[in-house]
Amino acid sequence: MKVFVIAMASEAEAVLANMEEKTQSSACGKIVTRGTLCGIPVAVVICGVGKVNAACGAQYAADCLNADAVINIGVAGGLNGGTAVGEIYGIESATQYDFDLAQLNGTAVGTLNEFSQPYLPLATLPLYPLKKLGSGDRFNDSPADFELLTKELGADIRDMECAAMAQACAHAGVKLYSFKAISDVAGSGSTTEQYLKNLERCNARLKEAVPAIFKGVMNG
């Protein structure tokens, strides 16, 4: 089964609005909706915000829903001129920019103890431009974080969940696809103000995109 794992209910609505025969339940503190999408059985797990929630949601999808692929969609922040508000991008690789064992292992920031490089690869589709993403448990306008993400890690997009899902899916042997609509771009004003202004627009774009994304994953 293909399972969407999505942080927030507002983002999940992009998928739920396209589904039929829906039934909802609660498991491990997560809202789980089963139904059909494009006539095919599917499930949606609303995991909650942040890396721990994201990893738990992905693990639940793998262990309890027998997912052979996890699909993550949502809004995210752009970090450079290669991203634009309202546009959707596919994620080719992701790293946890707030994970740092450099002092102990001498490894680059973002390099998990069980891996040898910062970025973990994701499954991709030729639907949208591909970008690199950094995940961290912070929503801010920090110049230090921006410098780390762009100069040291070369990330194009930031969020709070995707790289944690990538870690869980890598260990579970499950493909992860991720697609992000850009709600704010660094250097264009307050991240919070941009996010609140553009959230509805981004979720509407994702709602339109979901059928093609799902069909692409099914055929991938």
Short description:
This protein is an alpha/beta fold. It has a single domain, classed as Nucleoside phosphorylase domain (Rossmann fold), CATH 3.40.50.1580.
CATH names the topology as: Rossmann fold
H/E series: EHEEEHEEHEEHEHEH
Count of alpha/pi helices: 6
Per DSSP E runs of 2 or more residues, the count of β-strands stands at 10
CATH superfamily: Nucleoside phosphorylase domain
Cα-atom Rg, whole angstroms? Answer: 16 Å
Supply the CATH architecture: 3-Layer(aba) Sandwich
Structural class estimated from helices and strands: alpha/beta
Distance between the termini: 13 Å
Classified by CATH, the class is: Alpha Beta
Shape, per Cα inertia axes: globular
Poorly predicted ranges? none
Q: Could you describe the 3D structure shown?
A:
There is one protein chain. The protein has a single domain (2-219), classed as Nucleoside phosphorylase domain (Rossmann fold). The chain is α/β, with parallel strands linked by helices and 220 residues long. The chain is globular. The mean pLDDT is 97. Helices cover 35% and strands 31% of the residues. It is built from 6 helices and 10 strands. A 5-stranded mixed barrel has the order 5-9-8-6-10. The relative contact order is 0.22. The chain has helices at 9-16, 51-64, 102-105, 143-152, 162-172, 191-219; strands spanning 2-6, 20-27, 30-37, 40-46, 69-78, 88-96, 120-121, 130-135, 157-159, 175-185.
